[in-house]
Design goal:
Residues 11-65 form the HTH cro/C1-type domain. GO terms for molecular function: DNA binding; DNA-binding transcription factor activity. The protein has 108 residues and is an all-alpha fold. It is built from 7 helices and no strands. The chain is elongated. The protein starts with a helix and ends with a helix.
Length: 108
């Protein structure tokens, strides 16, 4: 049951990071909005096929949704990481490369 809740929390985190609604994720996966909502709340366990569809739509490796590199902690840090992730997920390859170089120069 804990894995089910973790999977759902990670789906919600990555969906929101992309700025998507349940309806948008539903459109991208062909999975009903109601089912995705149940998965996100941890009250329904997805089939592997469903988990793969969600991972592909969110452009996230499936293991991440199951807890590898789990959702960051709560609070301001989590909010900032979610915002940054959402911004990065909307960038094209050239923009990502430039952002990575800028971040490396800034952090060292």
């Amino acid at each position: 049951m804990e894995l089910q809740r973790l999977f759902g929390a990670n789906v919600r985190h990555h969906r929101k990071a992309k700025g998507w609604t349940l309806e948008q994720l539903s459109d991208q996966t062909g999975i009903s909005r109601e089912t995705i909502g149940k998965i996100e709340r941890g009250v329904a366990a997805p089939l592997f096929e469903t988990a793969e569809k969600i991972a592909v739509a969110l452009n996230v490796p499936a293991p991440v949704l199951f807890g590898a590199n789990a959702v960051p902690g709560t609070g301001e840090r989590a909010r900032l990481l979610t915002e940054i992730n959402g911004t990065l997920s909307r960038m094209n390859a050239d923009q990502l490369d430039r952002a990575a170089r800028m971040l490396k120069a800034f952090v060292g």
